[in-house]
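We modelled the chain as a single entity of 81 amino acids. Its sequence is:
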Amino acid sequence: MKTRKGGEQMNSSKLKGIRVEKGKTQKNMAELIGKSLVTYSKKERGEVEFSNEEMSIVAKALDLTSDQVNAIFFDDNLPKG
């Protein structure tokens, strides 16, 4: 859970949980966004930010609702830092 630009928080555990629930691997997701497995893993852990385009691809691949997208990528309920 890391701070994104503008102070928003990313809920990495929620993203991982939904990804696993949907039967997708980190490798699957990395291929979809055109990044290496290592880079995707860092993004999922919140160490590297997802671009807006990558967030859109992830949302579509995991069939996320707008509420889920907001809860994952813009979770203001998480502690800052």
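As a brief sanity check on the tokenised model: The two ends are 8 Å apart (CA to CA). The chain has one domain: 5-73.
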